[in-house]
From TrEMBL:
GO cellular component, one term: pore complex
UniProt GO MF annotations: polysaccharide transmembrane transporter activity; porin activity
GO annotation (BP), single: monoatomic ion transport
Location of the Soluble ligand binding domain: 480-526
Protein name: Polysialic acid transport protein KpsD
Region ranges (Disordered): 1-75
Length: 575
């Protein structure tokens, strides 16, 4: 069964022949047709919801049945493997901040802070005053005004109301907190440089932690930082809340406050198909799997997880789905690897050559070549439907392995064979140089992975398609390519009455190394015909094979096999 169509209704050219159709193909549906009609005697027509889906060109995503992502798209350079970085460590990588002279609006004014006041209109005055120990500032002609405990953002409203109690409404007032007094705050515990640090009372706990070198990522806690005042805790800070949602407790630090960073809590690691590949700190003794999922943010392709750790002093491992992981209690030093363990339900197949319509098709994994070809539109005048073949990555890998093994055997035979006489040794030394040169070039050759799927009658093999397959539809040509050991390799116009020898003669005859009757035909589909008895067809390649004298070349058979495997590597399906 195939996926719903996207663009197939736009194609009106005839489609390819099915397994039993060898000449005229049925017409593809018009744009308003809900479902195509299958070829006569071929695969039954599919329903409206069973047509081929088309896709954009380019790399397939995991949802399209393409490569499975192991890291986020926006972070392609991230190193794969177990997490080694503690979540939150990047907070303190920029060094100690300089003290700021500009208080934030939420800062609470304290004794020692400096306030600027400007009055203009009916009277004019400008004064910069310091908050005294009682929390007051003195304004000439107005008197003392209590400002301690007021937010920095509210100082304008407070001073203006006090001035207007003395002067008329024609007086304008501008008041601003210039700078907060410096305070000394102790930062201790698991930080890099504990001690007393000076700064503004308006600065946050993060600023003082940064002055102390930050939380030690190997020993300190990011989730239970305590601010003590007078020996009692006045605030507890979880930096994860700041990292994830920007929440930071509003606290004005005072002279003599102590910021304590306790020892690091239990740690749980997340790696694999996640956006956040980090070590996460646990607030208690265990962490619910649902919290790790929230922190690690698995990729959409992640379906399962592997939990590794220690239970009762014994190694522990568990395989679970993402949904089941949410209910698991994770313990200190557990590592959870998120993976994609569900095979894609579809395959992505490309179509190249003489085609009409989309170049990429998405189909169910059990779709066969013949079924798919019924829904690929072509121009029957231009397309050589008898020469269709597949390019399959898995076949290319197998061909490369076979060729490399053959080259390894040939090299071993080349260097381990014992020469009985000096003359034979000289011959073998000469051939060893020739073969070694060929092997070095052959190792750089990449097989194309051609899969022959059409028999001599033009019927396709009902092969199940694999992801990444490329269907190649050659164009019709009226020539025969004559190559190999001929005097003038060239393309010759095909004529129905010409014989094998006629084509060889038109190419100048056999070259000096050409062997009598040692010919081979390679069809457009990739099928090889050794020692042919019938003349080639349009689009075929006629190859004159070399004659190798076994008296001069001791490794003739192995070398000939290697030439066939590397230069003509293909698979044939017998029907």
């Amino acid at each position: 069964m195939l996926l719903p169509a996207v663009a197939r209704a736009q194609v009106s050219a005839p489609s390819l022949p099915s397994r039993t159709t060898t000449s005229t193909a049925p017409a593809a549906p018009a744009p308003t047709t809900a479902a195509p009609s299958g070829p006569s005697g071929g695969i039954p027509a599919l329903n409206a919801g069973d047509m081929i889906s088309t896709s954009r060109a380019g790399s397939a995503t995991a949802a399209e049945g393409g490569p499975i992502a192991v890291g986020p798209i926006g972070e392609p350079g991230r190193r794969a493997g177990p997490a080694t970085v503690v979540f939150g460590a990047s907070l303190f990588t920029r060094g100690s901040p300089a003290a700021s002279d500009t208080p934030n609006p939420n800062y609470t004014i304290l004794p020692g802070d400096r306030v600027s006041i400007t009055v203009w209109g009916f009277v004019e005055a400008s004064v910069v005053t310091t908050v005294d120990v009682d929390g007051n500032i003195f304004i000439p002609q107005v008197g003392p005004v209590r400002v301690a405990g007021t937010r920095a953002g509210d100082i304008q409203r407070l001073v203006e109301s006090e001035v207007r109690r003395v002067y008329s409404q024609q007086v304008q007032v501008y008041a601003v907190l210039l700078s907060a007094g410096q305070v000394g705050v102790f930062v201790t515990g698991q930080v890099r440089t504990p001690g007393r640090h000076l700064g503004s009372a308006s600065e946050s706990v993060l600023d003082y932690l940064a002055r102390a070198g930050g939380v030690d990522p190997g020993r300190g806690s990011y989730r239970d930082i305590v601010v003590n005042r007078g020996g009692r805790p006045v605030a507890r800070i979880d930096l994860y809340r700041f990292l994830l949602s920007g929440e930071l407790p509003r606290i004005t630090l005072q002279q003599g406050d102590t910021i304590l960073v306790p020892a690091q809590g239990a740690m749980v690691g997340a790696d694999g198909a996640v956006r956040n590949n980090f070590l996460f700190e646990v607030t208690g003794r265990t962490m619910p799997g649902s919290e790790l999922i929230r922190l690690a943010a698995p990729l959409p392709s992640a379906t399962n997880a592997v939990i590794r750790g220690t239970r009762n002093s014994q190694p522990f491992s568990r395989y679970t789905t993402i949904r089941e992981l949410a209910g698991v209690q994770l313990m200190d030093q557990d590592v959870v690897t998120f993976i994609t363990d569900s095979p894609p339900a579809t395959v992505r197949v490309s179509v190249e050559g003489s085609r009409i319509g989309p170049s990429v098709l998405i189909a169910d994994r059990d779709t066969t070549l013949c079924t798919l070809l019924d829904y690929v539109a072509v121009d029957p005048i231009l397309a050589n439907t008898r020469g269709i073949f597949l390019l399959r990555p898995s076949v290319a890998a197998q061909q490369a392995r076979v060729i490399n093994e053959a080259m390894d055997r040939l090299e071993r035979q080349l260097f381990l064979t014992i020469s009985p006489t000096t003359g034979v040794a000289e011959v073998r030394a000469s051939e060893a140089q020739l073969v070694s040169s060929y092997i070095s070039r052959a190792r750089r050759t990449q097989p194309e992975g051609r899969l022959v799927v059409m028999d001599r009658g033009g019927r396709c093999a009902d092969v199940r398609l694999e992801d990444g397959d490329v269907i190649v539809i050659p164009e019709r040509v009226q020539t025969v390519l004559v190559s190999g050991e001929v005097t003038a390799p060239q393309a010759i116009i095909w004529r129905p009455n010409m014989t094998l020898q006629d084509y060889i003669r038109q190419a100048g005859g056999l070259a000096e190394r050409g062997g009598d009757n040692q010919l081979m035909i390679r069809r457009a589909s990739g099928e090889l015909i050794l020692e042919p008895t019938e003349p080639p067809q349009p689009g075929d390649e006629l190859i004159a094979l070399p004659r190798l004298d076994p008296k001069n070349f001791q490794l003739t058979r192995d070398l000939l096999n290697l030439i066939f495997q590397s230069a003509l590597s293909a698979r044939v399906f017998a029907n």
